């Protein structure tokens, strides 16, 4: 029988994507492993491969189509021996809101009490759970501190419809509000008791409350142009808003003298043309070694527990045209400076071309954001959930310092650590920064 190919979920945060291009034409024969299409996700442009053999009989979603929901049928494949008659009366299975992996098999609808209420995609709740896990005993989508727990898709739909999440009863796991709950609220008249519910919910702060609908912000009166949001920009806006609303940030800052580091870098770069080390390569190496020496800081928040990572995987922010992405240097504490440099050059180049693989930017135990090359002296970065910390690196600048009671000039670099206070306390963060500073100011120790 015909096989439905659906829009795959290519990242845990992906709820929709752009079908950038088809690499095979309608009617073409494909085999397992052939690249069928390129999908622009919220993070990168990725290739989708066929897992079945057959003929691409119908393309249901044309190239260039934006905002295609995960699990929407995008094409139909006929197996060997089947002809066009097999498509008569055939309705593609799958659709937005159903679970599936986009592997080419017809998607199985999730069981639900009422077929008209499709369940949330699996990927959305999983990604949200890392940001703001719900308590085990929760009703009506609310936490004991007045916090409202809802999937990212449910928040967006409620915002677009102008519906307050505080007035919706969640039917998802642990009372989480999911898409079906918002759809039900949109279709049902608002009960008279709802204002009372909203007033009760308003007694406590609700950091994860629904954001205002986009339509509530009218265009400015001054001359302007409207810029359509890319999938990546939408994801950045949503995730960083959630991070600032749900993650209790605190900040620690140190000034590192880097004259010895600059001298060592110059010496090493002169020895070989095979690599050209950057200051950022030293920063990654120093942070990785510091996390190795202070393993309790290499952790993330898990709701009712803390996850301490056994490997040091450092995410490094890379600016691209659509926003930013954080490719990962895996096991960075086990890599030397030359290997880190080579890995980062390759990752950054492919990140800017939108060619990173999923495992190359999903995950990571700690993040680094370096704006020093833009002349920024110091800044504080927003934590990338569910990670426990992010290190912001400023520019190396010559500043007056006091050495042995005398005024001198040194090249200083300001570094600010943003910590999730649920995972890292002040003393632990201070130990991590002290270890990092030690490696930066005595760079020969990074070569051991």
TrEMBL record:
Protein name listed in UniProt: Acetyltransferase component of pyruvate dehydrogenase complex
Cofactor: record remark: Binds 1 lipoyl cofactor covalently.
Cofactor names: (R)-lipoate
Keyword Acyltransferase (UniProt): yes
Compositionally biased spans, kind Basic and acidic residues: 117-129
Keyword Transcription belongs to the record: no
Pfam families: 2-oxoacid_dh (PF00198), Biotin_lipoyl (PF00364), E3_binding (PF02817)
Keywords: Acyltransferase, Lipoyl, Pyruvate, Transferase
Domain (Peripheral subunit-binding (PSBD)): residue spans on this chain: 149-186
Catalytic activity reported: N(6)-[(R)-dihydrolipoyl]-L-lysyl-[protein] + acetyl-CoA = N(6)-[(R)-S(8)-acetyldihydrolipoyl]-L-lysyl-[protein] + CoA
Phylogenetic lineage: Bacteria, Pseudomonadati, Pseudomonadota, Alphaproteobacteria, Sneathiellales
Residue span(s) of domain Lipoyl-binding: 2-78
Bias-annotated ranges (Gly residues): 92-103
Location of region: Disordered: 82-144, 183-225
EC number: 2.3.1.12
Function text: The pyruvate dehydrogenase complex catalyzes the overall conversion of pyruvate to acetyl-CoA and CO(2). It contains multiple copies of three enzymatic components: pyruvate dehydrogenase (E1), dihydrolipoamide acetyltransferase (E2) and lipoamide dehydrogenase (E3).
GO biological process, one term: pyruvate decarboxylation to acetyl-CoA
Subunit structure: Forms a 24-polypeptide structural core with octahedral symmetry.
């Amino acid at each position: 029988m015909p096989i439905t190919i659906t829009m795959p979920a290519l990242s845990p945060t992906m709820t929709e994507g752009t079908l950038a291009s088809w690499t095979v034409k309608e009617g073409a024969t494909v085999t397992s492993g052939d690249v069928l299409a390129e999908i622009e996700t919220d993070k990168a442009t990725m290739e989708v491969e066929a897992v079945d053999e057959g003929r691409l009989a119908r393309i249901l979603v044309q190239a260039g189509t934006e905002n295609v929901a995960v699990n929407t049928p995008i094409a139909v494949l006929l197996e060997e021996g089947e002809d066009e008659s097999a498509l008569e009366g055939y309705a593609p299975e799958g659709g937005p809101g159903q679970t599936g992996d986009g592997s080419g098999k017809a998607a199985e609808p999730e069981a639900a009490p009422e077929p008209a209420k499709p369940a949330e995609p699996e990927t959305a709740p999983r990604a949200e759970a890392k940001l703001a896990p719900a308590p085990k005993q929760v009703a009506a989508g609310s936490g004991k501190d007045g916090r409202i727990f809802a999937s990212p898709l449910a928040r967006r739909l409620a915002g677009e419809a102008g519906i307050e999440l505080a007035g919706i009863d969640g039917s998802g796991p642990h009372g989480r509000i999911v898409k079906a709950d918002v759809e039900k609220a949109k279709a049902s008249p608002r009960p008279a008791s709802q204002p009372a519910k909203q007033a009760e919910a308003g007694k406590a702060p609700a950091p994860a409350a629904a954001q205002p609908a986009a339509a509530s912000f009218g265009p400015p009166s001054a001359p302007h142009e409207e810029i359509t949001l890319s999938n990546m920009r939408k994801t950045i806006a949503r995730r960083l808003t959630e991070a600032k609303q749900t993650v209790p940030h605190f900040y620690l800052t140190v000034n590192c003298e880097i004259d010895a580091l600059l001298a060592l870098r110059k010496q090493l770069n002169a020895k070989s043309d095979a690599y050209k080390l950057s200051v950022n390569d030293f920063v990654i190496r120093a942070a990785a070694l510091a996390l190795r020496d202070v393993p309790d800081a290499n952790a993330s928040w898990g709701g009712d527990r803390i996850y301490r990572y056994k490997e040091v995987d450092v995410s490094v922010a890379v600016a691209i045209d659509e926003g930013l992405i954080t490719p990962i240097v895996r096991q960075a504490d086990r890599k030397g400076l030359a290997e880190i440099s080579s890995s980062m050059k390759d990752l950054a180049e492919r990140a800017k071309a939108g060619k990173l693989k999923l495992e190359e930017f999903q995950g990571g135990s700690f993040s680094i954001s370096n704006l020093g090359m833009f002349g920024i002296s110091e800044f504080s970065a927003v934590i990338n959930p569910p990670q426990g910390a992010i290190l912001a690196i400023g520019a190396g600048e010559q500043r007056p310092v006091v050495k042995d009671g005398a005024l001198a000039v040194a090249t200083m670099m300001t570094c600010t650590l943003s910590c999730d206070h649920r995972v890292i306390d002040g003393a632990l963060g201070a130990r991590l920064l002290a270890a990092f500073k030690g490696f930066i100011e005595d760079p020969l120790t990074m070569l051991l």
